Amino acid sequence: MDFNDTPEEAEFRKEARSFLEKHLKLKDANSPRRPSGEDFLKRAKAWQKTKAEGGFAQITWPKEWGGRGGTAMQQVIWNQEESKFEAPTGPFAIGLGMCVPTVIAFGSDEHKKRYVKPALMGEEIWCQLFSEPAGGSDVAGVKTRAVKDGDEWVINGQKVWTTGAHFSDYGIVLTRTDPKVPKHKGMTMFIVDMKQKGVEAKPIHQASGGREFNEVYFTDVRIPDSDRLGEVGEGWKVAIVTLMNERLAVGGSPGPDWKEIMDYARDTGSLSDQAFREHLADWYVAAQGYSLTKFRTQTALSRGETPGPENSIGKIITANQLQDICNTAIEMQDHYGIMNDSDSMPANALFQQSFMWAPGLRIAGGTDEILKNIIAERVLGLPQDVRVDKDVPFEDLKQG
After folding, report:
1. HSE-up of 19 (CA within 13 Å, CB side)?
2. Three-state SS string across 291-348, please?
3. Which residue range or ranges hold the Acyl-CoA dehydrogenase/oxidase N-terminal domain (predicted)?
4. What DSSP assignment string belongs to 7-34?
5. pTM value > 0.90
6. 274-316 confidence digits (pLDDT tens)
7. How far lies 102's CA from each of 60, 68, 125, 213, in Å?
8. Which residues are the active-site residues?
9. DSSP 85
């Protein structure tokens, strides 16, 4: 592995840093961790437009789509530098990281002309409509039906845990178009206008206090066949492209790490606790292991290679570590740990707020179990899980 930038990469990092310093503030202890609201959305759109005009939005995309035509390593460098600043990027992560790349891969030329640049410029926001109430972690278990009616498809069903659906303009929706074949063969993907008649998004009030997830209901929603992505019945192939992008996009955790709980322990005199120091050592070792794994990925990108499924390890480590760190910090606060008041609690109640968010991170972008299966089967070469439903028509599968 090579931990150092090449001269070209160092020059690009300097350029990126200069651009960021010109437009944003560096993060500090008082920077909001999970900002939201209308004002945040406006700032996010403005920042996305600024990035695009400066040539730093979706660096690897071709110039004709508004990108820079740069390398994957340049995108990694940009992400590293941007993460140090108060950059309002959240509303565009799913659209530009997962949805629009799917449109580029499977959409028509008309789709690319219509949707790519407005998303890149921050004018339109996208969401991903996969998960369903009865599906759990099984993406192929979708029940939302799409029935052909002339040159249109009529969609009825429900999605859940859809991030940003309440403020999104468009989405990609995975539907069941043929229940008479096995579940992986009877799906089709569409582009859907989230503002059209029959689409209803209902924000879910989370334990953390946030409302970024939604239930989305489809009632006789009509979508033209021209807005289909991929062939009829081949939605799983389209979904895999989206999911591979998702695994890479949902990689780290936005909460406190071992450095922050060590600082808190130092301030409260808890570093003398032997049990806590053992926990701290475990967190440090895991974090360093993940950091070196990322270096391996970055080295591959720098050499023009494509990283493999081993990237799935990132979220398993960081999501579980986040939950463990926050739980430990709350226990250190004794009965005061139940308070979630940012004005009176240590670290502005960061540990409490992140503790309530952490379980969701272990689900978003693939559950721990799904990611462990990917690592076991595709990295370690272990035998696949037994699938008793592999050749069973979807309509014959037991429900409930």
Report:
1. 19
2. HHHHHHHHHHHHCCCCCCHHHHHHHHHHHHHHHHHHHHHHHHCHHHHHCCCCCCCHHH
3. 6-123
4. HHHHHHHHHHHHHHHHH-PBP-TTS-SS
5. no
6. 999 999 999 999 999 988 887 777 677 667 666 677 778 888 8
7. 15, 19, 14, 21
8. 246
9. B
